[in-house]
Amino acid sequence: MASKLTPQIITCLILPTFLLLFFYSTLPPLYTTPTSKIPNFTPPQCNLFKGQWILDPIRKSMYDSTCPFHRNSWNCIRNQRANMDRINSWKWVPEDCDLDRVDPVGFLSLMRGKNVGFVGDSLNENFLTAFMCVLRVGDGGAKKWKRKGAWKGAYFPKFNVTLGYHRAVLLAKYEWQAKPPELSVQDGVKGIYRVDVDIPAVDWANIADFYDVLVFNTGHWWGFDKFPKETPLVFFKGGRPILPPLEMWDGLKVVLENMVAHIDKAFPKKTLKFWRLQSPRHFHGGEWNQNGSCVFDEPLQESQLDSWFDPANNGANKEARKLNHLIEEKLKGTSIKTLDLTHLSEFRADAHPAIWLGKKDAVAVWGQDCMHWCLPGVPDTWVDILAQSIRYNLEMG
Ligand SMILES: *[C@@H]1O[C@H](CO)[C@@H](O)[C@H](O)[C@H]1NC(C)=O
Ligand SMILES: *[C@@H]1O[C@H](CO)[C@@H](O)[C@H](O)[C@H]1NC(C)=O
Predict the structure, then answer these.
(1) In terms of one coarse class, where is the protein primarily found (predicted)?
(2) ∠ CA(221), CA(340), CA(254), 5° rounding?
(3) Confidence (pTM)
């Protein structure tokens, strides 16, 4: 009897599903749709970036302080940050679908013989560190890996998978020049940081044939904290200074245009390219160097987010959304997919290392860390989203 039903099932279920999938695949990638219940079928990608954090008291982190890939100042369990169990009990629940927790063995099997690279600043390093610690659950033989311009990384021998991080905080090449011969140095300028807007930093200049998946970012270095007036960024194109000289923000626009064009052109079409949007900071009561604090026990409420982050309110943490507008504009029409991890992270004022930095004088010297994230913690949710997006894109071709 069952065999008689099979052709009917094919017509009634599978064929319409294919048609549906074909239809959805012609829509923008973030189109929201309920999860398909047919096994072995990847549901059309939904909007994983809109949702809420729900407390799930039995939820546990997948790794602990003994992961060998930790960076000391983010190893919050070892540094005895208050509240770590609670921080890791919040689950991100998208509005219209499920976010699966990454299955380390399943993901590594899917990626067998493939490599994932992160290029950008320490927020991407924070992301990669979480990814390495999560995947190590699926391959205890994971080893540290460092090659081809990589700052750090991990190799998973059971699956022949490599994860690497290429540090390139501005993405474009930049270097210190004490006495720039081409430029008349204004009073008070000690030297410049020359930025070649059309040349990628050497750390990721030659990785095009190695990675199957890449995740880019840049953002929080584009400020006067990092490059004050005495040591400014000066932008060059085609080997010559851009005239009239560009302000930092205009320089960022030109760098984004050039780097996005370079990524589009230099990497093979089959390489999956993502750009992760800004990681929001949570300095309360002042900037990082003005005793700004993030000793919070709970995520923010949705109704609080605009007062923290809307640029119109001119708060200490406004730049994430400002940068995102610019980046999203430059990514339009390119082969690079956007990972909008900003909104979900905006809630999590409770999940930064804050005063628990693992070194006695760190807070006095550097202030609280309300920018990077505790591990385990919020970046593990970024990993779940990235893994689901990779799986979706690989399986759907
Ligand atoms: C491991 O993967 C690389 C691609 O990253 C491939 O070139 C190599 O042949 C693989 N090695 C084995 C032993 O499968
Ligand atoms: C930060 O706090 C310390 C100690 O409470 C105080 O001495 C200092 O003036 C504060 N700095 C700022 C910028 O508020």
Answers:
(1) membrane
(2) 45
(3) 0.88
Q: Where are the domains of the chain?
A: 51-168+203-219+255-395
Cα-to-centroid distance, 111 and ligand 1 (Å): 11
Answer whether 291 contacts ligand 2 (Cβ < 6 A).
yes
Ligand 1, atom 1: closest residue by C-alpha: 113
- CB 11 near ligand 2, within 6 Å: no
Structure tokens at 183: 């430029």
- Nearest-atom number in ligand 1 for the CA of 113 is 2
Q: Are 294 and 374 in contact (CB under 8 A)?
A: no
| Dihedral over alpha carbons 65, 86, 57, 72 (to 10 degrees) | -10
Which two structure tokens, joined as six digits, stand for 217? 């970012």
For residue 282, what is the DSSP state? Answer: -
Q: How far is the CA of 259 from the centre of ligand 1 (A)?
A: 29
In one-letter notation, the amino acid at residue 269 is K
Residue of minimum CA distance from atom 6 in ligand 1: 113
**Structural class in CATH, domain 51-168+203-219+255-395:** alpha beta
Predicted local confidence at residue 20, as pLDDT: 45
CA of 160 to the centre of ligand 1 (A): 6
**29-81 pLDDT per residue, tens:** 443 344 444 444 445 668 999 999 999 999 999 999 999 999 999 999 999 99
| Segment holding 156, helix H or strand E | strand 152-156
> Does residue 160's CB lie within 6 angstroms of at least one atom of ligand 1?
yes
Q: Is the peptide bond before 16 cis (omega within 30 degrees of 0)?
A: no
Residues 6+ apart with CB under 8 A from 335: 264, 269, 273
Lowest average pLDDT, out of 51-60, 177-186, 386-395, goes to: 177-186
Cβ neighbours for 300, distance < 8 A, ≥ 6 positions apart = 308, 346, 347, 348, 349
Instruction: Provide φ and ψ at 155, rounded to 5°.
Output: -115, 135
Hey, which residues does 338 pair with through a beta bridge?
275
Q: What is the pLDDT of residue 28?
A: 43
